[in-house]
Each structure stands twice: as C-alpha cells, then as structure tokens.
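Contributing new records

If you add data, match the layout below exactly. Sequence lines come first and carry their own label; structure lines follow with theirs. Keep one chain per record. Anything else will be rejected by the validation script.
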Amino acid sequence: MTNSTQQLSVREKIGYSLGDLAANLVFQTLMTYLAYFYTDIYGLDTNDASAVMLTVGLVAAFGFNPVIGAIADRTVSRWGKFRPWILWTAVPLGVVASLSFFSGFGIGVA
C-alpha cells in the first residue's frame, strides 16, 4: 500500500462547502419549521409531534441511512460513488420535503 497525500484546492473546498451548506439549509429549515407546523397548523399535541419526529429520526439513523450508505459505497460510475446519488435524489428530496407540509385537500384543524 502506498501512502500518497493529495491536497484539495481552495476551489474544491469551497465547492464542497457550498454543497454542504445547501443541504443543511434544507434539512435545518425543514426540521425547524416542522415542529411548528405539526403543533400549530396540523394540530398535533406536542408529545405526539415529538414522538413522530423521534421515530422518523431513529428509523432513518439506524435503518435507512446505513443501508443507503452501503449501497452508495458500492456504486461504481464514471461520476464517482456519491455524485449519481446526489443528482438522482435531488428532485425526490424536494418532493418529499414539500409533502411533509401537506395536510390534505382542505382537511385539517381550523
């Protein structure tokens, strides 16, 4: 095994940082507003809203994320391991993020 070190350029560091910033802006905005939406707009009790968010977070952390990570690690493409997943899941992420604030067709707590 050879030990070779490669240094990232400033451009690559900025590019990675901007991608991470964009993802975190979406996730943090979603999580921050979701608690308000579930309790004040959808009408869930705070304990129920917390239980929903905890359950989904635990399922993602211990179930979904390791599986997707293993699949992504085994991906071989001309674009690399992770870029295809980022590109292919951008639109579904936007749809799911939007649907998390959908409360039905006029049905909900007034």
